[in-house]
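Can't paste images in this forum, so I'm doing it all in text. The chain is below; anyone willing to post the predicted structure tokens underneath?
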Amino acid sequence: MGTKREIKISYIMAIVMMMISFCDVYSQSVALSVSPGRGKREISKGDLFYMTIQVKDLNGNPEKPSEVPGAKVIYFDRTGQSSSFSSVNGKVSQSVSYTWTITLRATDEGEFTFGPVSVEGVKSNSVKYAIGAPMPSQEPSQQNGNGNNPSNSDKPEYIGKGDGNLFMRAEVSQSSAYVNQAILYTVKLYSTYDAIKFIGATASPKFDGFVVEESKDISTSLEYETYNGKTYATAIIARYIIFPQHDGKLTVTGNTYTVSVDQREYYRDPFYGHLSVSKPLQLNVTPNELTVNVKSLPKPVPADFSGGVGQFSIESSLPAQKFVTNQVSSIVYTIKGSGNIKYVTLPDLQKIYPAELEVYTPTTESNVNVGRYDVTGSIKYDYSFMPLEWGTFRLPEVKLVYFNPATEKYETSVSQGYTIAVERGTGSEKSMIKSGGSFDARLMLVKTNLSFKHRPYVYGFLYWLFYIIPIGGIIVAYISYKSYLAANSDIIAVRSRKANRMARKRLKRAFAYMKSGDRGSFLDEILISIWGYLSDKLSIPTSELSRDNISGKLAVRDIPDEDINEVIKLIDDVEFEKYAPSASASEMNDIYERTIKMMNSLEDGFRS
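Text version of the structure:
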């Protein structure tokens, strides 16, 4: 008996649990209803009316309907939320429902059906509604006594977009600077829009007459700033360190940006009051142009000026402690500081080192950072040298002469010098003479018989040949010098010949950078090569180099229009690549080939 009773109780409990589960599932529901606009009993064509979707105990959201029969969807949003609690036999349960409203404009007359709507697999009911003919009072030609148009009484009233706007400002750290002095150029975004979704450059800035280093130190979040009495959200979106290359007034033309924002539009709805919707908006914005007054470096410029403009120091280190003839050693010079450090040069060590030491081309190691306000870091020059003779030699101090814009003076930093003792290794003839060793007759064996019948050299042709050759050399040198003066009297022709030679030299360096994958140095060298070639070939001073001047000069020389357009396009493409994402090896090779082809085409045009 006890066992049958237990089975019966278990059966009853299972049924109860199933009913509770059924009730929980049944409580989940989606209900759809339709109602006319406020003050209306039925829907007429042209009226606003509403559908509500009530979602109970479901986490999902209904989708905005793409179309509703007989009507146009104006907007769709969640408009309400409610919750309730209940307690049965100590068990507390909660029920939550959300209300979503579809605002519609009746467009067609007739009877229509909409639904069902599905949320997480739970379907709603379908609703039927009828749209009648427009009421006489809704005709646009009829107005009430106070002049208002009743046909618009139920329409959302457009209030406006607010006072939101967006613009960019370009600034330089100083409007007057010296040649090669670092100048900070920034572009700041100002906005009052709700959200900024995308900012992308559609054109590169034009830094004619500048060498440019791009800084990655830009804003990662918005800050707020009051400008002209109004508060804006601001962000630094571009930062460059620019170095003017010649004196005069140089202009920086800002690049164009495409900015996508969310624009808030406000409405007054007769049923729900003031509402707002967010719409995407795309704007093209260009910052202001800026002019920098560039001054020449003070005269006289020191003969050993390194080209550095900024604040620098030089240090030296001598890794080796023992030096032997015919064995290579090294000395390291390190330049540290801020400014145009990439373009600082050291003196020619071969000229200041003892002649007994042979100095080789250094290997360089650069650790340069383009920071927030300047270019800083260090460059290490590792020179190899080989003592050719033994003895004691002095490695002199190396002077680094630079111009300091802060003091407006030329300053000098001096590295440490060293005295080295070179031991005799695998000796040369000179080192053996210095050794003072004893004479060994076997070194000068005489293999011919001595004779008293000797004819003086003065009677021989070879003796007089030693005089004829120098005199003839002097005559040839004089004639060559006169020819050189005549050939170089035409300065335009000289610069034209120099243009080809310098262009080949710079393109050779650009080719080396391309092979090593150094994209930035490659593009700098290509630009310098193009501008230098055009300046020398067309006899245009660097201060007057511009796209318009180049086009005009080439046109006067009867260069075809397609070649002129290719020159300008090539300059624009190379400048754009400097600020675009990293280019591939094939793109650098394409620029290199286009540069060579452009110069060859111009040469053909100049000769014709």
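The first strand starts at residue 29 and ends at 36. The CA atoms of residues 85 and 91 lie 10 Å apart.
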